[in-house]
Input
Amino acid sequence: MAEVSYARGLAGVIADESKICVIDGVKGELYYMGYPIQELAEKSNFTEASYLLIYGKLPSKTQLENFRAELTKNREIPKFIEETIKKFPKKTHPMTALQTCVAMLGMEDIPSEKDSRETNQKRSVKLIAQFPTLVAYFARHREGKDIVKPNSDLCHAANFLYMLNGEAPTDEIAKMFDTCLLLHAEHTFNASTFTGRVVAATLADLYTSVSAATGALFGPLHGGANEKALEMAKSIGSVDNVDKWFDEAMASKTKIMGMGHRVYKTIDPRAKILKGLLLDLSKKAGNTNQLEVLDKLAEKMAEKVKAEGKEIWPNVDYFSGTLYELMGIDSIYFTPIFAVARVAGWSAHILELWTDNKLYRPKCLYTGDIDLKYVDIADRA
Ligand code: ACO
Output
């Protein structure tokens, strides 16, 4: 048998081919279908980026209009899911509710292995349209408020905030939030996308695969980090407390949430863009305190790890929590919002995989015993 190398956590392993997204972790670059993220953040929007990911190219004006109309038309969720959401225990975490509801979408629109690519593309568009509704409906329920129905006059981002908060955001907040969604839409073989691909590669259906990806995003080492980064910034409180907090964190080997990345060995380009948005909004809100805390903490970390020859920089989750908080969003919804964006990337990957499917099946390095003698239960110590 050929010699196979061992990479714990699959670090650095190339597990498949993809044309969807590429990261240069050394230069800090990220591209969706070949387009640099900075340019997309500046000139495009989440709806167009979703089209790009699902169909593989930028849309014409008519294609974009039709796509936007499809997204708007498909925002409503099946009645039985709406009714079930109203019965969920209010203490349920919104990610648990979301993962459950995504699987439930496959109860009415029952997929089959024979479904065409076009059918699954349409399902993907529906998923992108329905994720915000699923998150917002459960949010309203857990807060004891009436569900707010989608508003077809509002764009994807503004409609989500409207369903969540019961009032439409300003154009400026809607635009910023849309950019946040665009920045989170795709990121190659991260844990949730890889999970989605692994499940899809068994030829399980789109809803099951996306539901599994949603579950993987829940963890604090992945999508849950922005909530933790915000908690951390708040507990530090002020820039004067950073030195002491940092020394204690390092002494107790506490991981700084929102920092470090498996691929980026420099600042995550999305974090740079988010920091710009945060600076803008913080200044407008007349409170840059939390941003200053985050900045100083990042500087301290950079100094420390430089001396150790390591590279630990802010990732996408470092600034987003503080930004969302300034937009009036409760931290429990940060990870579901990540899912609202990433469903575009998950769907794109699953569609791509199915054009030339291959089951994922890595090996493990066995470190247990072998050839033990079975001892009858009566004779065991
Ligand atoms: N704070 C302190 N030390 C860190 C951090 C951090 N955030 N990240 C890495 N390190 C240190 C580790 O302690 C380790 O040190 P050691 O070599 O002395 O043991 C070294 O850097 C390597 O760390 P690993 O965790 O092995 O790096 P890996 O590439 O496996 O992990 C990960 C990447 C999980 C993201 C890690 O950096 C981390 O836990 N960060 C905090 C959580 C976070 O922000 N997650 C979001 C990631 S982005 C996303 O999912 C959208």
